[in-house]
Amino acid sequence: MSKLVVLNLGRGDLRRGFPSVTVQLWEEGNPIAMQFTGSLPPASSLWQLYRRWQLLYQLLYEALYPSLGWRKYVNKEDEEIEIDEDDVTNISSVDFINLCDDLSQGINTWLKSEAFRNIDQKLRTTLAPDEEIRVILATEDEEVKRLPWHLWDLFEDYQSSIVGISAAEIERVKPLSKKPGDKLRILAIIGNSEGIDVQKDRAILEQLPGAETVFLVEPQRQELDKWLWDKQGWDILFFAGHGSTQTDGETGRIHINKTDCLTVPQLKNALKAAIARGLRLAIFNSCDGLSLARNLASLQIPQMIVMREPVPDLVAQEFLKHFLAAFADGESFYLAVREAQDRLQGLENEFPCASWLPVMCQNPSEAPLVWQKPIVAPKRKSSPNRRILRIAFQVSLIVTALIIAMRSLGILQSSELKSFDYVMRSRPYEAQDQRILVVGITEADVRTQSAKERGGASLSDKTLALVVRKLEQFEPRAIGLDIYRENPVSADYASLAKTMQNSDRFFAICKTSEDDKNPGIPPPPEVSVQRQGFSDVLTDPDGVIRRQLLAMAPALPCLTDKSFSFRLASRYLADFGIIPQLNPEKNFQLGNVVFKNLESNSGGYHGIDNLGHQVLLNWRSSPAIAPQVTLKQVLNNELTPDLLRDRIVIIGTTAESYHDYWSTPYSAQKMPYQPMSGIVVQAHMVSQILSAVLDRRPLLSVLPKWGEVIWIWCWSIGGGMIAWYFRSPLHLGIAIACGLAILYGVCLYILIQGIWIPLVPSALVFLACSVIVAVYTKNWGVESRK
C-alpha cells in the first residue's frame, strides 16, 4: 500500500525556527487520512554546517579530479564566500567524511527535538515498514530545501521510503489524456558537454524499451522552443550538460550549446505548453539543479530529478542507468529513484557523497508517472520494427544484386584472389609428403661441374648419368627430370641414353610454344612421348599460380598432352592398379576421385582461359612439401634406401641464376615467404594428385553459382539484422567486428574441407547492409516522431 506524507513547514527559517509544522497523511490518493502538527526549533548552525560541507565538497572534487573543469560553471555566490586557508591546503577525504557525519548527526538531533517528537512518533506508529512511502517537504525556505533530508534516520528504518521537496503553494495542472499502451515520449537535450562525457547518457536512453526519444544535440534556442511546443506532447524532458546559477543566486540556467545558456523564465511559455500536453517528469543531469527546480516548481511540473551539486560523469550516468532500468522494468517512480540513489553508495570510495547528489522534487497533488509498456494491437499497419525489418530485407536484395553484378564483371577478382591467398596461408600445417623426394641442384652444385661439359645447362651428361645410376639402385618408383634437355645425350654416355629410352621410370619435360617470341622447348629425343610431360604452369593476372594444368591439346614442339606432374603421379598410381580415365563429363577420374574441370567463372575468377583440364591447386600447407636433398649429397652417397625406395624422385634446379622461381599464395607477400622454385611447384602438383586419390585429401572446388548467391545474400541479411538489433553505435561496431571474424573463420574452415566460398563479396554486403540499415534506422526513428 502506498502512503504520501506531506510535511509542510509553514512560515519560518533555520534562524527563527518553524513554529507551525503540519503533517498530512494521504493513502493511495484518497482524501486526508490523518493530520497532526508540531514545530521545529531554530538551527542556524545546520546551515553553516551545510555550507561548509558544500564548499569542501567542491574543493575536494577539484583536488581529486581537476580534469572535470567545474570551476567555470560553479555558483558565483560560492566564489565570494571566504573559507579558512587551512581548509584548502589540508582538506582530506577523512576530514570530509567526518564533516558528513557531523551534518548527519546535526539533522537527526534537530528532528529529534522535543517540539518535533510528536510528529516523529505518530509517523512511526502509523506507517508500516513494508509500505511505499513518499515524504514531501513543502516549504518556501531555500536553505531548508538544500539540506540532505535523506539523512533523517526515518528513511533508514523505512527502506521503501523516499523524500522529495516541494513548494509550499501548489496547484494541479490537468494534462491531456494519454492512451493506454502509448509509448513514452522523451525529449533529450544534449547541451554543452565541454569536459564531460554525455554520450553514455545518450546510449542509455537509446536502449530504453517502450520509449520514443528525440535527441537535440547542442540545439539553438529556436529549435529547442519548437520541439517543446510539439503537439504530440512529451512525458519526460531530459537534459545532459553543464548547468549553473546566475549571479542573483536564485535563477538556474542550462548551457544548451557552447555559446548559449537559457533560464527557465526564458522557456516559460514553451514549458507550460509541454506540461499542459502531458510532461510529467524533468531530469537534469547537470550541476546546480536545485536552482532549476526552484524555477520549474512555479510551473507546477509534476516531478523532477536534479543534482544538488556538481556531479561527476560516472555518478550521473550510473544514477540514470539504474533509475531508468528499474522504472522501465515496472518499479514505481519513487522506488526506482530510491533504488538508484542507494546503488550510488557503491561508488563512494571513489566519489564521496555520490548517493547524496540526486534530489527528487514533487508536486504532491499530481499522480506519479507510470512507465507503460506498449500494447501490441492487432493492426495491419507495420510497426517501426517490422518496417525496419522489411527495409533490411529490401536493402539486402539490392546490395546483393549490386555485389553479384560487380563480381560478374570481374571488378572483385583481384581482391577475391588476394583474400583466397590469405585464407590459404592461415590453414594449419600439414606433414610432408613422404612419397616424394626433391633433388635440388644448387649454385654450388652447378659450379662443381665443368662449364664446358654443361654447355650452359645446370646438369652435364656426365653428372646426370652418375645421378641416375645412383638413384636407380634404390628402385624409386619414378624419376622425373625437371630440366630442359632438347639436345641428344653425348655418345660417351650411351648407358644414360639407353636408360632414357628404355626405363619406364624415367620422365622428362618439354615446353609448348606460346608465340613467335616463345617457340617452346622440345623434349629429350631419347624419351618417348608416353614419358614426356609439359612443364607449362598457369599464372593468374597478378602472376600467382593458383591452378594446376593436368592435360591439354599437344602443341609443337611438345607433342605430349599430359603435364609433367600428371605423368609422374599416374606412374606412381599404376602400381596400385589405378589408371587415369575420362568420364562422360570429360573430367579425369583416378579411382573414385574425379578431377572436375575448372570453369571460366569458377569461384572468384571471371572470364579466365579454362582450356585443357584445369583444377584449383590445393597447396600443401607445409614449410617443405617433401624431403629435399642436394646434388652433392647424391653424388657423395649420402642417400639411404628408406629415402628413395618406392618414391617419386624429382630432379630440378634451385639455383637462382636459372630464374626458375614462381609466385604462389605462399609468396604473395614478400615476408616471410619467398617465391617458390619450379621443382617445388611440381612437387606440390604431384602431391595434390597422390593425396587426393590415396589419402582422400580434398581437392578444391567451388559452390555452384546459385549457392554462392544464396551464401552472399545470407550475409547481406545478417548485416541488416544486426543493425536492426543493435542500436548503440558501440554495440553495433562490436557486432560487425564479431560478424566479420565469424565470416573469416567459416571461410577458413570450409576451405580446409575443400570448398572455396566467397569471402570478399560476403564481407562487402555484410558491411554495406549493416551501415545502410543503421543509418536508416537512426534517421527514420527521428523523422517518424516529427
TrEMBL record:
SMART domains documented for this protein: CHASE2
Protein name (record): CHASE2 domain-containing protein
Residue ranges constituting the CHASE2 domain according to the UniProt record: 412-722
The keyword Transmembrane helix is assigned to this record: yes
Transmembrane segments: 706-726, 732-752, 759-777
Superkingdom as given in the UniProt entry: Bacteria
UniProt keyword annotation of Cell inner membrane present: no
Keywords: Membrane, Transmembrane, Transmembrane helix
